Write the structure tokens for this entry.
Amino acid sequence: MPVIRVNQRDEGLELHRSPAPALAALRRAAQGGDGPVIVMVHGFKFRPGDSGHCPHEHIFAPRDVGCWKGRSWPRALRLSEDGIPDALGLAFGWDSKAMIWTAYERAAGAGRALAQAIRAIRAAAPGREVHAICHSLGARVVLQALPHLDAGDLGRIIALNPAEFRTEALAALDSPAGSAAELIAVTGRENAGYDLLLERLVPAARRGDRALGWGLPPEAEAGGRRLLLRLDRPGVAAHLERLGFPLAPRRRIMCHWSPYLRDGAMALYAALLHEARRLPLEALRPPEGVRPAYGGAEAPSPKHSTKHLPWGRKAPS
């Protein structure tokens, strides 16, 4: 079973379109191999089982679907039927089809449910590595799972244009599981407007807090276990190409989905998730001259106008 599909409901975890007990199915699936378990978490405007908004019929589908954002994550991450046989994918669905501030609050509960799924996998197969890849509000889900996990339960987190605040992220990363995990935040200037929009529409727990997409301060790098990967930087792209991961040029000036739609990017993430030990973060870190700055001029004021951004009423992300 290359991918097991689990959803968070008010009643708890459930298998997608199956009456079988979710936790038992997770334990059985985890015992079926010894390769890494890759957790996939979607972002805003999805609802499992809702036609047109179901993540399992969109980015979690086995093949690309007829939508410009419908790139199949399982296929791109080598979790499809013809992918890596020993790996296991966990496609985690949650209800994010709401106003952005409501979905942001729901993500905390989804994080607790995700932690329950990860604990079941770790209990059944303690020798298997568990990593996560997430987009947008999915990053908040994964980060909110960390305080409910033990150190080592989650190895590497790839957060694509994460929709979370720095203070919330730092609190989650300060937990035992968070301190032991690696975080790669993938972003670029294509997402700047969406970071500003998050800051304008969602009340932050701390006044003046900034979005995680602007990066964490250097003192929060936790011994090299935190990396801000700015794909818009030519020096970063050149460094990745030298490592064997060429990226196609970006297609749009503004795009919240660019980190997984950009040709070549998903091959990089697949390697980082399946071959974590061969590709340590230090090898991925760009040369000193092209490392991104943290905050300051990198983060324009949240007072900038964002009224023309297509955040709330369009297709799921």
Remarks:
- Residues 3-298 form a domain with the Rossmann fold fold (CATH 3.40.50).
